[in-house]
Design brief:
This protein is α/β, with parallel strands linked by helices. The protein has two domains: 4-33 and 158-248, 3-Layer(aba) Sandwich (Rossmann fold), CATH 3.40.50; 36-156, Rossmann fold (3-Layer(aba) Sandwich). Helix content is 36%, strand content 22%. The strands form two sheets. It has a six-stranded mixed β-sheet, with helices on both faces. A five-stranded parallel β-sheet has the order 2-1-9-10-11, with helices on both faces. It starts with a strand and ends in a 6-residue tail after the last helix.
Length: 250
C-alpha cells in the first residue's frame, strides 16, 4: 500500500484536497479535524451603511447566508465582496454576492488588495467570520479602514480522526499531513496523543502553511516544510512533489 497524504481541513475542503491529489497520482485521505457550526447572530439591518463585505472562508459565506435566513443575500448582494481566495469567491458568487477582489495568501494577502480598492476614512467594511480566527482583519486595516467583525460560525472539533486515517497511521502509511492553521496543528497533535500514536511522529512529514503553524505542530517530525505562501495550491504542490520524490527524501 502506497503512503498517503493526509488533509485535515474541514469538509468539503479536505475531500477536495484528496480528490485533487488523486488526479495527480497521489494517494490522499480526508480526515477533518474541525466542522463548521453556524452561530446565527443578529446582523446589521442596513447594507447601505457599509462599503463592502469581507469573506475569509467559504464557511463565512454559508454562515452569513444562514444568519440572513432563506431570502438570499438581499440588499447585501449589491455590495462589493473581497474574498480571500478563489474557492471562497466561487461560493460567494454562487450565493449571489458581487465579488470585486479575489486575494491569495490568506488574510495577510487580501488586506493589501482591500487597501487598494477602499477609500480610507469612508464607510466601514463588514467582516462575517469565524468565532476563533487566526488572522485579525480589523487590526490589519486599522486605522485607515474601519472593519466591523461579526461571528457567523464556529469551528467545532470533530470527535476523532476517521477510521481510514487511524488505520493508515497504525500501519505507518501516512507520508505527510497538510496543515493550514495553528489550531489544526494542535488538534492533530492531540489526536495522535489520544490514540496512543505519538510514536508515529518520526515517520510523518509536516507541510505547514506558515512558520506559526509549524511552531504549533511542535518537534519530533520526520521533516517540516513551510510554504512560502499559505495557499491551498502551494501546499498541494509541495505534497505532490514529496510523494513523487519520496524514495529520495532520507
Amino acid at each position: 500500500m502506497a503512503p498517503f497524504i493526509l488533509s485535515v481541513r474541514p469538509l468539503p475542503d479536505s475531500q477536495l484536497d484528496s480528490d485533487t491529489l488523486a488526479r495527480r497520482g497521489v494517494p490522499a485521505l480526508a480526515a477533518p479535524l474541525l466542522e463548521p457550526q453556524p452561530i446565527a447572530p443578529t446582523l446589521p439591518d442596513d447594507p447601505s451603511r457599509y462599503a463592502g463585505l469581507i469573506f475569509t472562508s467559504r464557511h463565512a459565506v454559508d454562515g452569513f447566508l444562514a444568519a440572513l435566513g432563506h431570502g438570499g443575500p438581499g440588499g447585501w448582494a449589491a455590495l462589493p465582496v473581497f474574498a480571500v481566495g478563489r474557492a471562497t469567491a466561487r461560493v460567494a458568487r454562487a450565493a449571489g454576492f458581487s465579488v470585486k477582489v479575489t486575494g491569495h495568501g490568506g488574510g495577510g494577502g487580501l488586506a493589501p488588495l482591500i487597501r487598494e480598492h477602499v477609500d480610507a476614512g469612508g464607510l466601514p467594511l463588514l467582516w462575517p467570520a469565524a468565532r476563533d480566527r487566526g488572522f485579525d482583519m480589523v487590526a490589519a486595516l486599522a486605522p485607515a479602514i474601519t472593519v466591523e467583525d461579526i461571528a457567523v460560525y464556529a469551528m467545532a472539533r470533530t470527535p476523532r480522526l476517521t477510521d481510514a486515517a487511524l488505520d493508515a497511521l497504525a500501519y505507518g502509511k501516512i507520508l505527510a499531513v497538510k496543515l493550514m492553521s495553528a489550531r489544526s496543528a494542535q488538534l492533530f497533535c492531540e489526536q495522535l496523543a489520544e490514540n496512543c500514536m505519538d510514536h508515529c511522529r518520526p515517520e510523518i512529514i509536516v507541510i505547514a502553511g506558515s512558520d506559526a503553524i509549524a511552531a504549533a505542530a511542535g518537534d519530533g517530525w520526520r521533516q517540516i516544510y513551510v510554504a512560502k505562501r499559505p495557499t491551498r495550491a502551494r501546499l498541494l504542490a509541495i505534497a505532490s512533489l514529496l510523494y513523487h520524490r519520496r524514495e529520495t527524501l532520507d
